[in-house]
Amino acid sequence: MREQLEQLRNGALQAIATASSVEQLQDIRISLLGRKGELTALMKGLGSLSAAERPMVGQLVNTVRDEIESALGVAIESANEKIIATRIQSERIDISLPGRRPLKGTKHPVSLVIEEICSIFAGLGFAVAEGPEIEHDWYNFEALNFPPEHPARDMQDTFFVENDMLLRTHTSPVQIRTMLKQKPPVRIIAPGTVYRCDSDATHSPMFHQIEGLMVDTKVTFGDLKGILTVFTNQLFGQKTGVRLRPSYFPFTEPSAEVDIACVICGGKGCRVCKNSGWLEILGAGMVDPEVYRHVQYDAENISGFAFGMGIERIAMLKYGISDMRLLFENDVRFLRQF
Amino acid sequence: MNVTYNWLKEFVDFDATPDELAALLTMLGLEVESMVKLGDGLDDVVVALVEEKRQHPNADKLSLCRVNNGKELLDVVCGAQNFSQGDTVVLAQIGAVLPGDFKIKRSKIRGEESCGMLCSDKELGLAEESAGIIVLPPGIATLGTPVFKALGLKDTLFEIGLTPNRSDCLSVIGIARDIAAKLGLKVKLPHSTLVESSEKADSVIGVTIKNPELCPRYAARYISGCTVAPSPEWLVKRLNAVGIRSINNIVDVTNLIMMELGQPLHAFDCLRLSGKRIVVRTAEEGERFATLDNQLRVLTSSDLVICDAERPVALAGIMGGLNSEIESTTTTILLESAFFKPAAIRKTAKRLGLHTESSHRFERGIDIDGVTRALDRAACLIVELAGGVQAKGCIDIYPGKSDRAAITFRPEKANELIGIDLERDAIIDILTRLECQISGCADGSVSVVPPYYRLDIEREIDLIEEIARLNGYDKIPATMPIARVVSDRPTRHQEIEKRVRDLLVNNGMTEIINFSFTAPDSARKLLLGDDDPRHAAIKLANPLVDEQSVMRTTLLPGLLETTARNMNFRSLDLKLFEIRRVYLPCEGEDMPREPLCIVGAITGTRDGDGWSRPNELVDFFDAKGIVETVLDFLDVGGVSWVTENQESYYHPGKSCRIFSGRECIGSVGELHPLVQKNFEIEKPVFCFELDFEKLVKLSRTKKTITAPSRFPDSTRDVAMLIPEELAASKIIDCIRTEKSNEIEHVQIFDVYRGKGVPEGYKSIAVRIRYRSIERTLAEEEIATLHNKIIANLTDKLKVTVR
Question: In Å, how far is B487's CA from the nearest CA of chain A?
């Protein structure tokens, strides 16, 4: 029996060593150690041995079985490793091919700039207000201190529609609508679409503005300067120089044009800033008492400022766009860059 | 407003250089929009002497000159004839660049060397035409002196962008006054010495104002015996510099004084005035009058006219008449200086589309106090330049004479509003420099009377602005406001708009923005029925072009035009959307409605061309999928897809309207082939439209979230044959009628037609996933439920399970 075991062991180890696949190894396991396997059969034969031989041979059987099991285990593991190695080898890809991208959409640059400006002012406590684009003369002009037949109306070429209405020429009527609805303190910005009958490389008959209005007790012109400095620094970078110079709008007094140091040349003078080093980006001023009168605010005890800017102009400066018409041609080769 | 540095300097003696002056003006609110330095870069154009002049050997019309530029003798070939040896001329030396980028180079002309060019006025940009080269007075300057310096032509032209409130600065004196006020200097008024005859002006001509409310002041002077002639060089050049063409000595003087003092003047040929009378009145309705520009004008009763005894001779403040204009033979002049009511002038000028330098000033308001000062100065200059004598006295009818109202001004209010801390004296000093009359009041405020020419100063706030302006905006400290906290956040409408825009962008769509106005026929192109409300667009009264003449009632035409334009540029894979307003007239309402709409268009391949994917084209279900994503995101419930009453612009077999409950919220479909053709689109396009306002209303903001089950699922597939006309959605609906909590998910995973499926049928394969939230389902439970569902399908829908 001992020789039988010896023989079986040698045969098994030989077979394991020459087996070439996991399947063959499994077969070997079954043929030796399975229920009807050779070693199992030998173990069953232990009963016929004498009581003295039985423990010795039993131990030998166990040793042989352990040896075979362990050899099988090692062989299977190595066969599996080989399989994986082969698979890995065969599955190599050319990673230089382009990735499969989910299609990327883009927002229109006008929307992007509106969102950015609104979020800067949201941080300063300004809520977003809106108003109609087809407006009454009263909101667009009269309440903003543009009396009928006033030359200041020439500053804004107006599209008229029937029933004495017009396409708003600026977002400023939203100031009036807001103040008629609520009492101070008021802190709003109003982005929106506006219209002027004017069309060339730098003028579009439709464009966008953002209006700002703050009314409270003791708001000063210096505060306007402060808010606009913070705003322009956030929009164009911390060190952007800001300059206010006197101007005129019927609905503010004192009024100012707000210039930033040219973002193209840094103030040295270039074609974009017409060698002045400054870029005009905003109109602003302290709300004129005449406007307060129209909305029944008490001009003696409150004060405030308003400002307005063209979105397209800011988009053009931010993204270095030279022709405003690009913004409304909606060419996807342009839009997909944002 | 154009003005030159030298001209300003005649009125106020400042030290600033042209560049410093430009900066100063801009910071005063008189924005210098451009600056041209006359003679700049022309230092190589110098005074020279013709030492020798002889005939060019090879050309009859040319001469050979030896010219002395003070340093050397140069050979120059010249074509002009109007000079001789010994004349002082203007030499453009080699290297000089004349106006028009004309570079002077060494050259050979007909075999003879030429080292420069002798110049004419025209070549130096000093005149539009010139007969020959410039011959200077002998000894005008050392040879070699730059000619612009020698002629005193070195000057800087400023183009100032004036705001409409500063009518006082439509004159040299007005700008000079601001400079003087800023720098603490005094303005020098031009001095006129009147020499008058003994004949009294008001005995020659009578003036009557019939409408004093429209003409509060009318003044005139009478000059006889003068000679109309071309203006002297200095006058021509001065007018040219500010962009005014010279006409003759009389008209040029009126223009010069208008530029200088801001008072438009008009000179009548007095002999052509009938009845020696001037009557200022409103025109008769329909009265006809030929203005100087040779146009016959039909007037209305609101137009103000200047008449002689019989007929209008000028359109007040706007333009004179042909019937009384100054001609070469004119000898007797009536010179008018008046103040007309701004609104009236503006109304007439606007109605007639007649905008002149004169009307521009009158409609903004001029200095009523300066009417006769300008008149006197002009009369003196005319006598000086055209000869003649002026009659004694100035006719001055001034029914509107009144003092300017005093303004109560609180210096501390100025500090408070501007956010500065100026001494009271410093504030009052600013107002004094602006030539305001000031007197103190008991309560600490001051009473301020502004000068007549500052029509923009009427209220305390106007004075506060002057303080801020003259003190300097740059001196105002930037501060942050002390504000009360207000609680505010975006409205639901704003929030949803932003989120939908984000969602569409995140789904690969590109946002477009089209003009709100469109062509009147764009609704027709969509094949909308005659009674469709979208035909009723709001029209612009003054459109720029017909294609932009009505306010859109739908976003589709713009979207489709954009699609076509992009496809023309071979951008064939498009996913476009627009979230913008449409404009709907509202019968009986004060205002039109401006609801937000969402539209989208997709076309081309699904994911763009790629190396690894078949170029699958998008179809209806891609468009529907986007809509489903939006509706799902906004949690709009009860959605159904309805094929009845489809929109005209869709393919009838590939489109539907979208409902939430009973509310139609939009549509989706393939573009109708005819509409596709109308918009010149070559490939199929799939569109969707959503009514944003309804989405906001129907969106459920409170989502209910459930915890997922922790138990295993069991999945069953069932394939069935159904007639083609039966909607696949009915199968899902039918399965869902089984109100069991154990049906976790139902999904159509295959639609098949072809082998094994009879004609007129389609095979639909559905996968049902069963799972309980509470326990593991037993095989028998699932079988019972599944069989019940199949029974339902066979009974109710008559499907054949395969």
Answer: 8
**Tokens for A39?**
């070693």
Q: Which residues in chain B have Cβ-Cβ distances shorter than 8 Å to A151? A: 164, 342, 346, 363-364
Mean pLDDT of chain B: 92
pTM of the entire predicted model = 0.85
Domains in chain B: ranges and CATH? 2-37+159-183 (3.30.56.10), 45-153 (2.40.50.140), 196-397 (3.50.40.10), 407-475 (3.30.56.10), 492-698 (3.30.930.10), 714-801 (3.30.70.380)
Alpha carbon of residue A287 to chain centroid: 36
Q: What phi and psi, each to the nearest 5 degrees, are found at residue B587?
A: -55, 125
Q: What mean pLDDT do residues B84-97 have?
A: 90
Q: B485 CB contacts (<8 Å, ≥6 apart)? A: A125
| Distance (Å, whole) CA B433 – CA B414 | 17
CATH architecture of A109-335: 2-Layer Sandwich (3.30)
| Residues B271, B332: Cα–Cα separation, whole Å | 6
State pLDDT tens for residues A217-246.
999 999 999 999 999 999 998 788 899 999
Structure tokens at B630: 């939006």
Assign B546 to helix, strand or coil.
helix
Residues of B with Cβ-Cβ distance to A242 under 8 angstroms: 478
Number of neighbours of residue B25 by Cβ within 10 angstroms:
23
Q: Six-digit token pair at B674?
A: 């005819």
Nearest to B463 by CA among B444, B435, B421: B435
CA angle at B217 for the pair B211 and B223, rounded to the nearest 5°: 115
DSSP letters for A8-68: HHHHHHHHHHH--SHHHHHHHHHHHHSTT-HHHHHHHGGGGS-TTHHHHHHHHHHHHHHHH
Q: Which of B317, B339, B358 is nearest to B453 (CA)?
A: B339
Distance CA A254, CA B549 (A): 38
Q: How far, in Å, CA of A215 to CA of B167, rounded? A: 30
B61: confidence class by pLDDT, cuts 50, 70, 90: confident
% pLDDT > 90, chain B: 74
| Chain B residues 612-631 with a CB less than 8 Å from chain A | 612-613
Residue that has been written with the tokens 């009236």 in this structure: B344
**List of chain A residues whose C-beta atoms are within 8 Å of the C-beta of residue B571:** 331-333
Residue B653 sits at the vertex; the CA angle it makes with B651 and B656, to the nearest 5 degrees, is 80
Can you tell me which residue has the tokens 């009052």? B428
pLDDT in tens, B637-652: 899 999 988 999 999 9
DSSP collapsed to 3 states, B269-305:
EHHHCHHHEEEEEECCCCCEEEECCCEEEECCCCCEE
ipTM of the complex: 0.86
Residues B305 and B299: beta-carbon distance below 8 Å = yes
The DSSP call for residue B757 is S
Alpha carbons B568 and B124: distance in angstroms, whole number: 51
Question: With 80 as the cut, is the pLDDT of residue B614 above it?
Answer: no
- Could you tell me how far CA B282 lies from the centroid of its own chain? 34
Does B539 sit within 8 Å of A222, measured CB to CB?
no
3-state secondary structure at position B699: coil
Q: Which residues of B touch A125 (CB under 8 A)?
A: 483, 485-486, 488
The closest CB to that of B461, out of A151, A167, A288, belongs to A288
Measured between alpha carbons, how far is B228 from B246 in angstroms, rounded to an integer?
13
Whether B694 shows a pLDDT value over 90: the answer reads yes
On whether the CB atoms of residues B24 and B139 are closer than 8 A, the answer is no
How far from the centroid of its chain's Cα atoms is residue A328's Cα?
23
SS3 label, residue A129: coil
Per-residue pLDDT of A279-312, as tens digits, reads 999 999 999 999 999 999 999 999 999 999 999 9
pLDDT at A121: 96
